[in-house]
Amino acid sequence: MAPRRAAPVEEDPSEPDNEEVSLQFNEPLSWRPGKPIPTDQLLKRLDRLSKELGEMDQDYVNTESLTKVAKDIASHQLLNHKDKGVRAYTACCIVDILKLCAPNAPYTQSQLKVGINQSISYSICIGRGAS
Description:
Blueprint: H1 39-55, H2 67-73, H3 76-79, H4 84-101, H5 109-128
């Protein structure tokens, strides 16, 4: 009698792949003096970045792929932008980057202080319904 063959093992699609995921976002977030990115375009870019960062899992993210964006998002241009939407998206992205890179934040002590203060300020404003 011939030996029985085991049934092929099907992968469960609900189980996540254990492969490292890199950030795909590659649009510019910084600009040269006198050549700013239009606010509507900047908001769209920050929205795409925020959504991509929000979908990433800390256990499977390639943190080196976040280095350039982490540097760009902590820029004075974005943190102090005249548009409150840009500042809010910037704060959200900084929080997501901190979450993904924890416990090794890709920021200096002073950048962390500014970023955290900014995030707290926007959280308070959102909670109060301020515009």
